[in-house]
Write a structure and sequence with these properties.
The chain is mostly helical and about 180 residues long. It has three domains: about 80 residues, Serine Threonine Protein Phosphatase 5, Tetratricopeptide repeat; about 55 residues, no CATH class; about 40 residues, no CATH class. Helices cover about 70% and strands about 0% of the residues. It is built from eight helices and no strands. It is elongated, with a radius of gyration of 26 Å.
Length: about 180
């Protein structure tokens, strides 16, 4: 489904106004923003959906780059995302601040980026590959798989051992399973 069709569905769901329809509109807009993170209009629509749902933190998050922000929502967002690096990641921007469509969005993105860089103690960018949280993801995927296989093998061997001991006791004490 294309952007135009998805936005038409979102408009119909917002117009319907039921909680289920608003949640579906929210999901559609989140998906679109994942694909088009630089579309400020999508962010503003999502902020409006969250506003309707009564979630000022998320409304402030998605309306953070808008020309006209609601100060209470912006304050709620900044209160929840106090750490500049967390705030930078929460915005979900994937380009340089210069890529933003409006001067106010460019200024806000640059301000958050500067604060996050100071907090991290190194220069950061909004690009996906240089995500500051990526370093926290830790070990490669195969380490987790190796731990899973080792624990699974240990449980399997304990089970076999338990059955063996029970069969041995049954045979020795009662003459069963001999």
């Amino acid at each position: 489904m294309g952007v135009t069709q998805t936005l038409a569905k979102v408009a119909a769901e917002v117009e319907e106004g039921s909680p289920a329809a608003l949640l579906m509109a929210r999901q559609r807009l989140r998906s679109l923003i994942g694909t088009y993170p630089d579309r400020l209009d999508l962010r503003e629509q999502l902020a409006e959906v969250y506003r309707t749902l009564g979630d000022p933190v998320q409304a402030g998050r998605w309306g953070y780059l808008a020309e006209q922000r609601v100060p209470a929502e912006t304050a709620a967002f900044e209160r929840v995302y106090r750490d500049p690096v967390d705030r930078m990641l929460a915005l979900g921007w994937r380009h340089s601040p210069d890529h933003a469509q409006t001067a106010s969005a460019r200024e806000r993105l640059a301000t958050v980026l500067d604060a996050a860089s100071q907090q991290a103690g190194r220069p950061l960018t909004y690009t996906w590959r240089e995500d500051p949280a990526a370093a926290d993801w830790g070990e490669p995927w195969w380490e987790g798989a190796a731990v899973f296989v080792l624990f699974g093998s240990a449980i399997l061997l304990m089970g076999i051992g338990l059955v063996t001991v029970l069969r041995w006791l049954g045979c020795w004490l009662f003459g069963w399973f001999c």
